[in-house]
Design brief:
Blueprint lengths: L1 E4 L5 H13 L3 E6 L4 E6 L7 H5 L4 E5 L35 E5 L6 H14 L3 E3 L17 H14 L3 E4 L14 E4 L7 H7 L6 E4 L6 H13 L5 E5 L18 H8 L4 E3 L1 H5 L5 H10 L4 E5 L17 H17 L3
Parallel strand pairs: 5-6, 5-12, 6-7, 7-8, 8-9, 9-10, 10-11, 11-12
Antiparallel strand pairs: 1-3, 1-4, 2-3
Amino acid sequence: MVVVLRSDVAQEKIQHLISWLEEKQLIVREFQGQEQCVLGLIGNTAAIDIDMLRGLDIVESVAEMRDPFKAANRAIHPEDTVVTTLGGKGPAIGGGQFALIAGPCSVESRAQILAVAEGVKAAGANFFRGGAFKPRTSPYDFQGLGADGLALLLEVKKATGLPIVTELMDIRTIELFEDVDVIQVGARNTQNYDLLRELGKLNQPILLKRGLAGTIKELLMSAEYIMASGNENVILCERGIRTYESAYTRNTLDLSAIPVLKDLTHLPVVVDPSHGTGRADLVPSMALAAAAAGADGIMIEVHNDPARALSDGPQSLTPAEFHDVARRIFKVREAIGL
């Protein structure tokens, strides 16, 4: 349920109403817009007399919410959420703040990630991504460097100043991610609800990827698990879904999800064309299309030697190729007034 209050209502009256609603065992999310205050009521609203609520002198309107996702719903939070990093001193995502996230699929060595980090930063990236723990289809493939990989990522952060983005796979390793700036939830864990609840207890931003065959609704409900547990710093990521096509692309990148999500939710939306296509030659065009569609960020895999990469080499750009793509992304955003 969404309760829109009249403009210029005293905060004391707003707090009194919130306290009364909370006594009804409802979770109340307050959003203070530029002109009005909106209250989102989450829980069993059947106990509320809607006519009585509408009749209050401080209430302008009351509307039922049909969507099952509440905290992530734009109806509750009309303005775009801006997710900040580095205690508010680092780059932000959402509300016009654009994130260009780049780095290798896997952390392989100190020399490798430092070389890539320097290259992508020079090209305009404001976040560095790299996998320390890797979910692989085959148990015989490279699984990442684990804790040693995280240590190397923190070295990159210290050397370049770039906030780091890396994937958490297991609740048991969550304490190792204390200094990670943005924790990624991979496609295979999008519906790992126990993990999502634990991430909801943190303050760090969570980059939540869409599941391998996940619907938009399922992605938003996964975000709801995190937000309902207390962490509202969620970034959604469209990374392609599994469809009938498998011969020419790794996945099918659903660019229509960008405007759909921007309409349904206030959360930032990032696009990953590397996993979305699985082909380095397709990444530039899909990255430009995502920028034109209004994505709040783009995440691209970059490796200094893709042919020898330990994972996802075929979809990785070289630093020089990334530099060219980044230049064109910024031109597209400028052309459409972003």
